[in-house]
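ERR on first pass: missing label on line 2. Operator R.T. fixed the label and resubmitted. Corrected input:
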Amino acid sequence: MTLSSGTCGQASGSLAVLRALQQALEEQGLAEKVHVRVTGCQGFCQEEPLVTIQPLDVLYCSVKPEDAAEIVAESLANGRIVERLCYRDPLTGRLVTTAAELPFFAKQDRELIGRNQFVDPCDIRDYIAAGGYAALAKVLTQMDPEKVIEEVKASGLRGRGGGGYPTGRKWEQCRVAPGCEHYVICNADEGDPGAYMDRGLLEGNPHLILEGMAIGAYAVGARQGFVYVRNEYPLAVEHTRTAIAQARELGLLGERILGTDFSFDVKVARGGGAFVCGESTALVASLEGKVGEPRPKDVHLVEHGYLDQPTVLNNVETWANVPPILLNGSGWFAAKGTEKSKGTKIFALTGQVKNTGLVEVEMGTTLREIIFDIGGGPVNGRQIKAVQTGGPSGGCLPVSLFDLPVDYEALTAAGSMMGSGGMVVMDDSACMVDVAKYFLRFLKDESCGKCVPCRLGIDRMLEILTDISEGRGRADQLGVLEELAWTMSVGSLCALGKTAPNPVLSTLRYFRDEYEAHLNERRCPAGVCQALRSYFIDPELCSECGVCLDTCPEGAIVEDRPFRIDEMLCKRCGLCEEACPAAAIRRV
Amino acid sequence: MPNMVTITVDGARIQTPEGTSVLDAALEAGICIPNLCHLVGVEPIGACRVCLVEVVEDGRRRMTASCTLEARDGLVIEAHSEAVMRARRNIVELLLAEAPNSRAIQDLAVRVGVKAVRYPMRNNTCVLCGRCVRVCDEIWQSKSLGFVGRGTDRHVALPFNKRPDLCKRCNNCVEVCPMTITPCPGPMAEPRICGLCESQLTMVENIPDTCVWCELGRGFQCARWQRRGLLSKV
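pass 2 clean. output:
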């Protein structure tokens, strides 16, 4: 049986479930016969912890410790399905017993994340049993480095960290760059709010990344690699370290790998939690022990990277794609996807949708399919308004653009970006000015502050947005915002500053009416901006119970006949709205 | 004799030794690319972004800072194109709103044609150009100053806020600071580009983006000042 226990699973109590399962197995005398495999995140984070039982092929969702005894007694001892714990389709009410039938999984192409289910991240034997390290063996024994690079180039694999630079070309540039030592680095400094694809991969299947890095190192001629992972991912750090130790033990890392002349080793470096260190040059500076600040990009990492030596830096997901490509051939990979974007991409689907979790789809899948078919559409019968892709520096796309395919060029043209793959869905309860403000505030804190356009530009943009959301905005400020955004996008030092205005630009482009409502009518259409909303008591519904009188911290409720709210005293906190038992207090 | 490379800046062909930055090459040739954080003799960091230029390659234009751009043979640079001037204006406007009392920044603003500031003025004294930090580190090998903090919290400070023994009070950091090159008597009467001291705003109102013999240029060893022989009189 398999129990998913990544960070998301553990947060849902998977460790207690594990103890309960083991105890139940012990009590019923099955401990010897049943192997409990503790895996990383399987993607369906909404319903964690997930328990799969083989050979019965049944999937249980949201398992609680108290269910353990029943699962063991029914499914393991007697081979019966506990229907109570199976997933029920919220639309049709149909019972789903196997993972393959799950509507969340059905439309996906879970090439990478699907492997998590078969692998205990702390046990290299699982990975090898699932076909792991076969690609490395094939590469080391049958291919020369040029051939490997050719193969990766032919596959059309592009950087999954967001930039979309062709991986094969990057490797080739690094290979030919002069230097006494070459390095490969895995960028696992994932800092986007609401994105955790890299965490899911690294903590669920660390050997896949290590194998990818070893192949990359062989191709570019490196002997040393680094996994730069943020310290906020303790499980990923731990699993990667365990994986490295196990691989070393079996001779899959270290001196003379698999008896060939190729030597390669990996170190784990922990990041201190700066978002900007996900930027490649800042990451390398941080790795060298310097302040994690980007440097001008006119000199590329592939020539002057770590310790001024040629360095290949790729994202976790990019590395994870390498072993399957080499094993199955570039044609297999290139067959998937659109003309310029090949393969599959993992997205972290979060926000106001029914099913949240890690979603892996073929490139070219439309946003609508991801959000409505896989994500299950809006919650609480609301209307989905927009989706924010690409992390804080991506953009918000409106429903009218949901037929856009997931493709580097298509998303960039629409004013957003692929980014590393965060996907935050917003419904009509979200105010787009407030959303833009949220992301700018994040970027303001995370900007390194080195260059003027980014440091002061974000600051001033936030100042203007705050003015707008607090009812002090002027119509000419929209022009200033656009001018600032343009300046930042052309003038900033690194990609963080260059893409920082995207949340503002894209909301201005698709939701300009909301900005104008804030400016001209001093009204927030979604009722989010505190300063612009007001409350009134519906005399028809008010029962004059007096709960609001006690709740209001400002004493703004006037005990007239009928009750009313003193606009001068009201701080628009909304406590009375929540407290009113008759729902007579409404927001306008 | 170092290898010479030829670059084109605003249509002028300039020969310069290999490894020079585009900004240095242009200044040397008397083409004034406005700049702030650039300092002769220390490593460029590309922080102020005032010296932005456009690189024209195969018909495509890409904007980058000229101080960190190394001169390569055949490089074509547009230092005063429409887009460059617009970006530069916006950036200096941001700087000016941050530290309106600096004469150096006022001059810079006049030089690039900032007419008005669209943001509320703040009265900060530091724009984080990092001149002091780099002089202390690279020229005096003292590392007594450094950047602390991130984003808007970033500021220049002594290590652990205590003057280290390595600091010999050479005062060089003060000398290179754009706030002190010629300090404005300030405070400004109104929040606008000064006009109280002898800023050349009125002089060049009709012909923006011409050389105003800015004080900044003198401090920065602009080629024009050097040629006038005024540098020695400073």
